[in-house]
Amino acid sequence: MTSHEWGRVDEDGNVFVRTADGERSVGQYADGTPEEALAFYVDRYEALSGEVGLLEQRVNSGVMSPEDASSSVKTLREQVVGANAVGDLAALAARLDALRPIIASQREAKKAEKAQRTAESRTEKERIAAEAEKLAEGDDWRNGANRFRELLDQWKALPRIDRAGDDALWRRFSGARTTYTRRRKAHFAEQQERREGSRVVKERLAKEAESLAGSTEWGATAGKFRDLMRQWKSAGPARREEDEALWQRFRGAQDAFFGARDAENAKLDEEYAANAAVKEQLLAEAEALLPIQDLDAAKKAMRDIAERWEAAGKVPRDRMKELEGRIRKVEQEIRGAEEDQWRRTDPEKSARADDMVGKLEAAIAGIEADLERAKAAGDQKKVQQLEDNLASRRSFLDMAKLASQEFSG
Which domain holds residue 403? Predict the structure, then answer.
């Protein structure tokens, strides 16, 4: 018989382990020596001891859940107690029993940690639900949809709380999202309807603009284009692609008309440059009358200048204000001198003023008749000349009437 601290082998090769309850047969090893038999069963013990040590490390490190740890301890302890091995099996069992308080402590810690996570999750979900309800009342249709997606991702990342509380908060969040989505769809449907209406209006305006692009009635057509532009601005936007295409059509027609008008005006300005040179010479004559020494001579000279001024015709647009301003200044000086003289002369001279009024009115009536005939004939150049003449005559008429009224007074 071969003995060991925790077991023995009898003559028949039977192997026993010593326990607190006495010896227990763990097996038979008939094919080898007693020493080999003991070594075989001691190795089994060492293997069990290694498993216990590994389980101790895993439990103490906290890598196992309390439930898994408790189950592993129970399973391994059953294996140790009934193991067919030679060694201090009671010590192994005691080491496993020593893990139970550790597991219990870990279980309590996990429970407290879970309770804290649950409380934090409840607080966060309440915040998410409240923010969702606030978003549902707003009109931020672009950013709001993105924010709802972010809130949903945040919700999914949070642990569940108690079922009733979790369901109630989810109903708040989901209901708010549904309300927002319904309102958002209604908004975009209404916006789409308005854009379609705008497209119809702008389609009509683009067609009308295209029909006016070739017009040579510069003044009237320019006014129509301004009216079309006001309508365009008040129509509101269509869908982006359609709106851009319609605008290109509208703007193209507008540019074609105003480009032709500007070209025509540039041509006329070039033609009128010679007229401006003539009026420059006339201005030199008129301004030489100042200061007035001989009123009658100045008036006579001014009448002659005025007739030649009218006959000179139109000037480039960028010169009109300057030239008209200078000739009007001379006229005002003569008119002022004449008013001073009239105030100083005998009232009987009012007859002459009345006669002047009559002549000017007759002349104006004749010019107005010629103007109507020129308009009917479509002679734009003649119309402009007559309008300039008419403006000058009316200016003299106003001056004559003022003198007549003063004499009559």
Answer: 349-409
Of 191, 207, 224, the position where a domain reaches its end is 191
Domain match, 156 and 185 both: yes
* One domain, residues 64 and 141: no
pTM of the model: 0.42
Whether 90 and 9 map to the same domain: the answer is: yes
Q: Pull the structure tokens for residue 139.
A: 């009109």
Please state whether beta strands 14-19 and 22-28 pair in parallel, antiparallel, or not at all (unpaired). antiparallel
CA distance 211 to 221: 11
Residue 365 φ then ψ, to 5°: -60, -40
Q: Are residues 182 and 252 in the same domain?
A: no
Task: Please calculate the CA angle 75-76-81 and round it to the nearest 5 degrees.
Answer: 105
- 155-213 pLDDT, tens digit per residue, is 999 999 889 999 999 999 999 999 999 999 998 888 888 889 999 999 999 999 999 99
Residue pLDDT, tens place only, 314-352: 888 888 899 899 999 999 999 998 888 777 765 566 677
Residues 6 and 93 placed together within one structural domain of the fold? yes
The Cα 289–Cα 302 span in angstroms is 8
